């Protein structure tokens, strides 16, 4: 028969093999062609059999060109900033697929002329927040606040309580963000106390608006005093309320968290909020409120630079209109159900020879929202050293380490991912 290496398939023949052709379409022909050449050389060197060349090609190719990886969130933080905050609902994911094609995002099909961008998402927000006369969407919560400052207070003053000049994620600070827009800050009160008279004394002809910032990532307790949106609305200037976390209406499990509907009902002229936190949608910044002011924001030149794409608009619309989001479902999880899930997982692991126990613990909302709120939860405790193996496994699992144990908190993890969690732990042990 001679040397089998003489019968190594030609490059074009391998590239036309259905599975290789599909990979070339997905990853690019040149990338796959390089993998073919490498597999052919391995066959010539005797490292693989001739009949294994195609399998050798496929083994060297990734399933996707995407570097992002799916992570199992067993940290006990529902909105983990480093994990992208809110996971999207199945309906929102399907909307992304539709929007990825050719759509009427800015076309009026009835007239054939240019239409208002994102009309569906804007209508959904107005319906969900009946106290809002108008809505506008930008690319994140900080952008929403920056747009308000630029359009309403450039070269003017923003009156804000000193205790509300907070720092948000990655070292970004509200006062620096506002100053970058050309507005001047007029701080009132002290770190822990501010009164309505402080605001009233600071307001003058240069006042653009009064800003009320919800300190969503920390709590000041003790000898404190703050001024409500309702009281601020008595002042003869616009009131912008940055509620941060994105609740559109009150939530029974988060009674202290502000929401857009209530803030506007209490007299705020504009409310700014994030879409990827408690709303459970894509990263976006929402501006809701007085029609005239929102239109000023929409027509400001900066609004163009902060415009969101069709994917965000599609996911946001379906999130607002659709059924419960994964974030909403996680908030509603019952402690007893979480405990039963943890017991079942611990039993499976113990049956496989892995030391595991059921642990009562608490989860957090995260994402810069609901500070101090503890959600009763349950976790599976395994050996501390498994935390790194789990984090670097496939799929990666983000747990937390407490008191010498690696805790797999189930509050942020959907029940349908329990099987994947068990497999990941067994793989980490091996």
TrEMBL record:
Modified residues (N6-(pyridoxal phosphate)lysine): 277
Name of the gene: selA
UniProt keyword Protein biosynthesis, yes or no: yes
Name of this protein: L-seryl-tRNA(Sec) selenium transferase
Coiled-coil stretches: none
Named cofactor requirement(s): pyridoxal 5'-phosphate
Organism superkingdom: Bacteria
Gene Ontology terms: cellular component: cytoplasm
Domain L-seryl-tRNA selenium transferase N-terminal span(s) in chain numbering: 5-44
Short name of any one Pfam family annotated for the protein: Se-cys_synth_N
Enzyme class of the recorded protein, top EC level: transferase
Catalysed reactions listed for this entry: L-seryl-tRNA(Sec) + selenophosphate + H(+) = L-selenocysteinyl-tRNA(Sec) + phosphate
Similarity annotation: Belongs to the SelA family.
Pathway the protein acts in: Aminoacyl-tRNA biosynthesis; selenocysteinyl-tRNA(Sec) biosynthesis; selenocysteinyl-tRNA(Sec) from L-seryl-tRNA(Sec) (bacterial route): step 1/1
GO biological process: conversion of seryl-tRNAsec to selenocys-tRNAsec; selenocysteine incorporation
Cellular localization per UniProt: Cytoplasm
Annotated function: Converts seryl-tRNA(Sec) to selenocysteinyl-tRNA(Sec) required for selenoprotein biosynthesis.
NCBIfam families for the chain: selA (TIGR00474)
Chief site of localization: cytoplasm
EC identifiers of the protein: 2.9.1.1
């Amino acid at each position: 028969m001679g040397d089998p290496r003489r019968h190594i398939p030609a490059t074009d023949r391998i590239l036309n093999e259905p599975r290789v052709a599909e990979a070339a379409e997905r990853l690019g022909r040149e990338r796959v062609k390089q993998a073919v050449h490498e597999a052919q050389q391995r066959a010539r060197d005797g490292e693989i059999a001739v009949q294994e060349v195609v399998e050798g090609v496929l083994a060297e190719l990734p399933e996707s060109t995407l570097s992002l990886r799916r992570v199992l969130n067993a940290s006990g933080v529902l909105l983990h900033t480093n994990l992208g905050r809110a996971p999207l609902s199945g309906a929102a994911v399907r909307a992304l697929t539709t929007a990825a094609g050719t759509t009427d995002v800015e076309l009026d099909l009835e007239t054939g002329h240019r239409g208002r961008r994102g009309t569906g998402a804007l209508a959904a927000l107005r319906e969900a927040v009946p106290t809002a006369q108008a809505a506008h969407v930008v690319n994140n919560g900080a952008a929403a606040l920056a747009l308000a400052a630029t359009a309403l207070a450039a070269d003017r003053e923003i009156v804000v309580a000193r205790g509300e000049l907070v720092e948000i994620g990655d070292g970004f600070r509200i006062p620096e963000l506002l100053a970058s827009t050309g507005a001047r800050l007029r701080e009132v009160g002290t770190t822990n106390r501010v009164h309505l008279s402080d605001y009233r004394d600071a307001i003058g002809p240069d006042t653009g608006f009064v800003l009320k910032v919800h300190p969503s990532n920390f709590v000041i307790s003790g000898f404190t005093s703050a001024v409500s949106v309702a009281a601020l609305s008595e002042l003869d200037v616009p009131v912008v309320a940055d509620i941060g976390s994105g609740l559109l209406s009150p939530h029974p499990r988060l009674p202290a968290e502000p929401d857009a509907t209530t803030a506007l009902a209490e007299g705020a002229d504009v409310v700014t909020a994030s879409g990827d936190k408690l709303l459970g949608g894509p990263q976006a910044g929402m501006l809701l409120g007085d029609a005239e002011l929102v239109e000023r924001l929409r027509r400001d030149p900066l609004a163009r630079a902060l415009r969101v794409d069709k994917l965000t608009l599609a996911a946001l619309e379906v999130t607002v209109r659709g059924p419960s989001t994964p974030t909403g479902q996680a908030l509603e999880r019952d402690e007893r159900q979480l405990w039963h899930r943890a017991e079942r997982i611990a039993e499976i692991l113990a049956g496989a020879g892995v030391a595991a126990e059921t642990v009562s613990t608490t989860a957090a909302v995260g994402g810069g929202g609901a500070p101090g709120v503890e959600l009763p939860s349950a976790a599976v405790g395994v050996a501390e050293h498994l935390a790194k193996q789990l984090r670097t496994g496939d799929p990666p699992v983000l747990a937390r380490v407490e008191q010498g144990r690696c805790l797999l908190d189930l509050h942020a993890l959907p029940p349908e991912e329990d099987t994947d969690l068990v497999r990941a732990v067994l793989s980490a042990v091996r």
